[in-house]
């Protein structure tokens, strides 16, 4: 199974330097697309947390913390670890969402049940480390 870093590296290899906010949301939608195409399997094992600005993988965040943009050399990971099918799933997301503004992607996540449910009990601008469970992702996106 790939890691979130392999996926992020593949995204960066196509888009080049990308805002950290946008990278986190694209990684999320790559996971979503993979769940949809495989009817419930996961592209990578790391969990998302329901942060104020949408889903975030903490391990990825730790690598780009304090940066506005992230470049390939800022992260570990190896896109060569991805199968052709996994690469195709990522490329689908980039064709559909790669040109979107980061806050448009944030807004999309704010209208989807997994993030909404994980944020229950939180004020709109309250920090949270609540996990968006794999079960919630599978139930909502896996059909």
Keywords for this structure?
globular; 7 helices; 143 residues; three-stranded antiparallel β-sheet; mainly alpha; single chain; 52% helix
Mean pLDDT: 97
SSE ordering: HEHEEHEHHHEH
Spatial strand arrangement across the major sheet? 3-2-5
Give the strand tally: 5
Strand content: 5-15%
Q: Roughly how much helix do the residues carry, as a percent range?
A: 40-55%
Which descriptor suits the 3D outline? globular
Structural class: mainly alpha
Main beta sheet strand tally, sense and closure = 3 strands, antiparallel
Taking pLDDT < 50 over at least 5 consecutive residues as the criterion, the unreliable ranges are none
Span of the ends, CA to CA: 22 Å
Radius of gyration: 14 Å
Number of helices: 7
Account of the protein in words:
The chain has 143 residues and is mainly alpha-helical. Helices cover 52% and strands 9% of the residues. The chain contains seven helices and five strands; from the N terminus they run αβαββαβαααβα. The chain has helices at residues 4-15, 20-38, 58-64, 84-97, 102-109, 113-118, 134-141, and strands spanning 18-19, 48-51, 54-56, 69-70, 131-132. The strands form two sheets. It has a three-stranded antiparallel sheet. The relative contact order is 0.23.
């Amino acid at each position: 199974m790939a890691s979130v870093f392999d996926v992020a590296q593949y995204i960066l290899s196509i888009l080049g330097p990308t805002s950290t906010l946008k990278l986190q949301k694209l990684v999320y939608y790559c996971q979503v697309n993979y769940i949809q195409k495989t009817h419930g399997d996961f592209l990578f094992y790391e969990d998302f947390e329901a942060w104020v600005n949408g889903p975030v993988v903490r391990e990825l965040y730790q690598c780009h913390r304090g940066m506005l943009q992230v470049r390939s050399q800022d992260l570990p990971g190896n896109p060569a670890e991805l199968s052709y099918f996994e690469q195709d799933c990522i490329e689908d997301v980039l064709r559909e969402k790669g040109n979107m503004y980061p806050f448009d992607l944030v807004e999309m996540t704010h209208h989807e049940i997994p993030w909404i449910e994980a944020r229950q009990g939180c004020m709109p601008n309250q920090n949270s480390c609540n996990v968006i469970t794999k079960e919630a992702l599978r139930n909502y996106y896996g059909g």
